[in-house]
Design goal:
The complex is a heterodimer of chains A (277) and B (264). Chain A is an all-alpha fold. Chain A folds into 3 domains: 118 residues, no CATH class; 31 residues, no CATH class; 99 residues. Helices cover 55% and strands 1% of the residues of chain A. Chain A is elongated and about 110 Å long. Helix content of chain B is 66%, strand content 1%. The radius of gyration of chain B is 25 Å and the shape is globular. Classes of the chains: A mainly alpha (277), B mainly alpha (264). The interface between A and B is large, with 74 and 84 residues.
Chain lengths: 277, 264
């Protein structure tokens, strides 16, 4: 049989003590199988009665009971029996004859050992209680996370400030519609698109490709049905994404540094850099 | 006293620690310090380091909207997130602060814009520095948001239950690009004008309603005064407003979806 949980043993011991049974068990969990042959909780007796009746099939009440069952329980069982019998009588003659065949419940309230109840099984708590959250290794946000955040913010702030003190943001001459600079370049993050313009029709390069790319990216979690997040289980996804990013980076770099006047291909180390941030 | 032990370590490091310890004692022992940080001054009930108080620091704080009291241990490792999402958010705040500063000195008209920027650079205290910070932080934010997306992809963090937060993230990336692009026009110099010309020409090739899209973006057939005003309002008001809303949902979903993903 499965071992009885600690807290049940303790409770049964307390119950026993309260009922004045086996006074020897002091406090702690009694190791001898306390649970199985237990005239335990009084309310349970009522519930157990039908089961006992079915199994017992008219076993005698008085045979061995005297020593095991407290007087007040016996008395209550008797009262209940009387009540049940009385109820049946009151229910009418037809019903009474019908129940007569199933009558043993009235007389068979105790089991073979003279017990008014039986322990059918001990169910472990885990099997009936759904435990959702598993214990996780957690740390306090303060100070562990906030300190990291503060440090990273300070470092970034310092970098931006120092960089801004040294490097000026570009401010070219006043906008002039009659003077088109050569080359004219989009902001760097759109230079991949501008690079595509040299290969495809503007509708494809400027609208279709970025639109589809954004859509495909946004819907990634809905068609990537692989539930794992282990790099080894998703080599294809990682490879695909990396190729895509690399392709994009190469296009941006070419558009930024390798395109000169007329958006023609140049080498930055030979012809200079045509690039403003 | 902390480092005053005789383990032979009495080089400059040990001395420095001693000096620091002594300074620390002097400052904390001073009357000024004790009157400011007396129990009940900053924290109403004083602060002692205990799990209960560590919880209260977060729970009784506006940061509770961002952070739970506890997070998974691996989530605080810099090597996992590289702080990219948080730094994107910080850059957004930095850009808001520096942007508000710039707004004091800028008029979005073709006649005044360039001169205003020029004046800001030459005649306003810290004007040049703040404008530089605004511009570099903006480029950095585009980069940070993009790298954050890569980080999330490589960790598979877009998978259930975080699918929708990924979608919001892609929207935020788009908004970041739009914010940067609308800001690009505002200095009204040659760089701004022609970069935006190239960009909007591309959008003009949108199938079917390309001309409509272009007209709505420019406010006229050509880039001009209307475009500048339009992009200014987009840049300082509408797009930040929308971005803040999406960010709020983004951060909220991070928590509701069970904190950040992982460990791998």
């Amino acid at each position: 049989m499965a071992e009885v949980p600690e807290h049940l043993l303790r409770r049964s011991a307390e119950r026993r003590k309260a009922l004045g049974l086996d006074g020897g068990d002091e406090g702690g969990a009694p190791p001898e199988a306390a649970a199985p042959a237990e005239p335990d909780a009084a309310p349970a007796a009522d519930v157990a009665a039908p089961a006992a009746a079915e199994a017992g099939g008219g076993a005698d009440v008085e045979t061995a009971s005297g020593t095991r069952i407290p007087a007040h329980l016996l008395e209550r069982a008797k009262r209940r029996k009387a009540a049940v019998a009385g109820g049946e009588v009151a229910a009418g003659a037809a019903a009474a004859t019908a129940t007569a065949t199933i009558a043993p419940p009235a007389s068979g309230l105790t089991g073979p050992g003279g017990h008014t109840q039986r322990l059918l099984t001990v169910v472990k708590s885990g099997s009936i209680q759904q435990t959702k959250a598993e214990a996780q290794d957690k740390v306090h946000v303060w100070p562990h996370l906030l300190v990291v955040e503060l440090a990273s913010i300070l470092i970034l702030m310092a970098l931006v400030t120092v960089f801004s003190a040294i490097v000026r943001a570009p401010l070219l001459s006043l906008a002039d519609f009659n003077r088109t600079p050569n080359p004219s370049k989009a902001p760097w993050y759109f230079l991949g698109l501008q690079e595509l313009l040299t290969m495809f029709h503007p509708m494809v390069a400027g609208v279709t490709i970025p639109g589809v790319a954004l859509g495909v990216a946004a819907l990634a979690p809905y068609y990537d049905k692989n539930p794992s997040n282990k790099p080894n289980d998703r080599r294809f996804a990682i490879a695909l994404f990396t190729i895509f990013i690399m392709l994009w980076a190469v296009l941006v770099i070419i558009g930024s540094f390798f395109r000169g006047p007329g958006f023609n291909f140049v080498f930055p180390w030979k012809d200079g850099i045509y690039f403003e941030l | 006293m902390a480092n005053g032990n005789g383990n032979g370590k009495n080089g400059t490091g040990g001395k420095l620690t001693q000096v620091l310890d002594k300074t620390d004692e002097t400052i904390r022992g001073s009357q000024a310090w004790n009157s400011i940080f007396r129990p009940g001054s900053v924290y109403r009930r004083g602060y002692t380091d205990s799990p209960r108080n560590r919880s209260y620091v977060i729970m009784n704080n506006v940061l509770y909207h961002l952070h739970p009291v506890k997070v998974k241990r691996h989530a605080v490792k810099v090597s996992y997130t590289l702080c990219l999402g948080g730094l994107s958010f910080f850059l957004f705040i930095l850009l808001t602060v520096t942007g508000i500063f710039l707004m004091f000195f800028y008029r979005p008209t073709a006649a005044a814009a360039w001169d205003d920027v020029r004046t800001l650079e030459t005649a306003v205290s810290f004007g040049s520095l703040v404008r530089n910070m605004h511009r570099w932080a903006a480029h950095l934010m585009v980069l940070a948001v993009f790298l954050h997306m890569c980080r999330v992809f490589y960790h598979g963090a877009y998978k259930a239950p975080r699918e929708f937060n990924w979608v919001i993230g892609v929207i935020l990336l788009t908004l970041t690009l739009l914010l940067s692009f609308t800001g690009y026009l505002l200095p009204w110099d040659q760089l701004a004008l022609w970069a935006v010309t190239v960009g909007t020409n591309m959008m003009g090739y949108t199938p079917v309603f390309g001309d409509g899209v272009k007209f709505v973006l420019l406010g006229s057939k050509e880039i001009g005064n209307d475009t500048l005003l339009r992009w200014y309002v987009l840049h300082v008001l509408l797009l930040p407003f929308v971005t803040v809303i999406f960010m709020a949902v983004h951060f909220w979903r991070v928590r509701k979806d069970g904190g950040i993903s992982g460990p791998l």
